[in-house]
């Protein structure tokens, strides 16, 4: 399955495959305040963002990963990224980040809910995985709203040196 022409529409959002045209948005908005609850570290140079996008585009084309740009439908404003990774497995992984200025609008919940419903209709899986830091309360609400159950917790060190207390949810 090639996701190159994939799109997913919600009431307020449009989700489309990540491409190089979004490199400046991703580079600017994926910063230390966004990544504080995440394993990856923000890029220091735009070339790091370009490499991330290149890898993502290969996954999109091969159908193994669905890395999506979240934009507002009404004005195309860049909101962040949502992902469904390891698509061809029995346990795909949901991922999300929303730019700081868009926090508090439930865009992340709307995007992940749409991606979840798309996966339920189009994929065969045992459950979806959603990992989130326990201190990231708005993000914790997303898997819980989809009936996710906590199956494990662990403490890890992110690439920026941040300590993460990860709660692993399974969503059926």
Description of the molecule:
With 172 residues, the chain is an alpha+beta fold. It has a single domain, classed as Gcn5-related N-acetyltransferase (GNAT) (Aminopeptidase), CATH 3.40.630. The protein has five helices and eight strands. It has helices at residues 23-29, 32-35, 46-62, 107-122, 137-145, and strands at 8-9, 13-17, 66-72, 78-85, 93-98, 128-133, 149-157, 163-171. It has an eight-stranded mixed sheet, sandwiched between helices. It is globular. The mean pLDDT is 97.
- Radius of gyration, CA atoms, in whole angstroms: 15 Å
Order of helices and strands: EEHHHEEEHEHEE
Mean pLDDT over the residues: 97
In spatial order, strands of the major sheet run: 1-2-3-4-5-6-8-7
CATH topology: Aminopeptidase
- Given helix and strand content, the structural type is alpha+beta
CATH 2nd-level architecture: 3-Layer(aba) Sandwich
Low-confidence spans: pLDDT under 50, at least 5 residues?
none
Helix content: 25-40%
Percent strand equals: 25-35%
CATH superfamily: Gcn5-related N-acetyltransferase (GNAT)
Shape: globular
Question: Which class in CATH terms?
Answer: Alpha Beta
Query: How many E strands?
Result: 8
Count of helix runs: 5
The major beta sheet can be summarized as: 8 strands, mixed
Terminus-to-terminus distance: 22 Å
Number of domains: 1
């Amino acid at each position: 399955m090639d996701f190159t022409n994939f799109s997913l529409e919600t009431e307020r959002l449009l989700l489309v495959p990540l491409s190089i045209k979004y490199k400046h948005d991703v580079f600017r908005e994926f910063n230390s305040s966004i990544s504080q609850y995440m394993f990856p570290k923000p890029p220091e140079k735009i070339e790091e963002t370009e490499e991330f996008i290149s890898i993502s585009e290969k996954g999109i084309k091969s159908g193994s990963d669905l890395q999506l740009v979240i934009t507002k439908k009404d004005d195309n404003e860049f909101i962040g990224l949502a992902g469904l990774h390891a698509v061809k497995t029995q346990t795909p992984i949901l991922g999300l980040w929303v730019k700081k200025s868009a926090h508090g609008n439930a865009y992340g919940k709307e995007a992940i809910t749409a991606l979840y419903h798309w996966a339920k209709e189009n994929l065969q899986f045992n459950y979806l995985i959603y990992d989130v830091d326990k201190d990231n309360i708005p993000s914790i609400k997303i898997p819980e709203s989809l009936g996710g159950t906590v199956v494990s917790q662990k403490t890890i060190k992110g690439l920026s040196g941040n300590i993460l207390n990860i709660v692993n949810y399974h969503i059926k």
